[in-house]
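dude i think i finally got it to work??
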Amino acid sequence: MVGWIILGVLVALIVGICLIPIGVDVSFIDDKLRLAAMAAGVKLQLIPKPPEKEKKPRKEKKPKEKKPKPPKEEKPAKEEKKGLPLGLTVDDLFEIIKKVLQRLGRFGRKFRVDNFLLHFTASEADPYYTAMTYAYVNEVLCILAPMCRRTFKVKKSDVSTDLDFMANRFRLDIALAMTIRIGQIFGLVFSIAFAALGVVLKARRRQKREEKEQKKLPPPDADAADQTEHTETQTIQDEERMAANG
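look at this
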């Protein structure tokens, strides 16, 4: 009974950890960069660093006398093995990369965008370039917006563009708060690991099959040796026959 209770507590603990959301909150507003990490609703500011509390000066410790260490014996250099590890070929590596990219493509929907802000104000010294920049940015946003909605789960977004013919430089304010659960990250890692392991096992089976086929084949010089021996025997027989015939 106690064992089942312990097992239930461990399972509940693992499930609880997997459900914890973690994420990042980054923004660039008014030419100031801010970066914070989030876990279970708690935000830890990374940039700019929060002011440190004044610490009491530590007492200086006397340096300890270091004893000389005996010289280490030099180990013989290992021979470098040529070729790719685990018997993989270049095609196998491309197969692994392909599977990893496929998993990452499905991974986008696991992210939840809690907040996305983008405010862009086009402004150049020349009014013509201001209008062209404004049109170009709007065109790019019209292309990217549907792609982002299909790839990510967006909870809140605020995107706007504007023109300013009085200023001499553009203005950009951007902010992104994104979260994902720990269990979903583990799921992606395990999925990629199993996909790569499948390619490695396939390459190992192919390598063993090729080794067995090579063992079944006769040595490359066996045929030549048999042919040489047959030629020498035939020459000796011809010489004996000629000697017998006088």
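The radius of gyration is 36 Å.
im so relieved honestly
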